[in-house]
Design goal:
Elements lengths: L2 H17 L3 H6 L6 E4 L4 E4 L1 H14 L4 E10 L2 E11 L13 E13 L2 E9 L1 H7 L18
Parallel strand pairs: 1-6
Antiparallel strand pairs: 1-2, 3-4, 4-5, 5-6
Length: about 150
């Protein structure tokens, strides 16, 4: 198996084990010291206990949370994944009471490798879209008119 194939298999297991809520298996996809960087919120989770606590907190808030792979690309030191994240807000989320509303947000994750070991997952997404879908922020305004005059 090539390095590229091994990395892809590891990332796929990482994502699938999250969907199964088998977080011990997810943690095992990382090197000895897992790290998550949630860019949209500035949250950095460094080490197994912080990452495990993040899994617990997000699955209390969204017990049906799941990801759906859209595309997967390879870079020299990373696997880059575009995916849709879905969930229903059933529990407290960082002080926000549950709204019972669902979200679907397109995300991008960079799975960063040091040699053949997964060292970090860095996630990018539009947090305002997620919060608006959950009813925790105002919805974005409708598209502005083009300013073109009709004749």
């Amino acid at each position: 198996m090539t390095d590229r194939a091994r990395r892809e298999a590891l990332v796929r297991e990482h994502m699938e084990s999250e969907n199964r809520h088998e977080f011990d298996a997810t943690l095992k996809t990382f090197a000895a010291h897992p790290r998550y960087e949630i860019v949209a919120t500035g949250l950095v989770l460094d080490g197994p206990s912080e990452v495990a606590a993040y899994y617990q907190a997000t699955r209390v808030a969204f017990p049906d949370q799941r990801n759906e792979l859209v595309s997967l690309r390879h870079a020299d030191d990373a696997v880059i994944v575009e995916f849709d994240l879905h969930g229903t807000h059933r529990g407290e989320l960082y002080g926000f009471p549950p709204t019972g509303r669902s979200f679907k947000v397109r995300m991008l994750a960079m799975f960063l490798f040091e040699r053949d070991e997964l060292a970090c997952e860095r996630v990018y997404f539009d947090s305002l879209s997620m919060l608006a879908q959950l009813g925790l922020a105002p919805a974005p305004p409708p598209e502005a008119p083009s300013g073109r005059q009709e004749s």
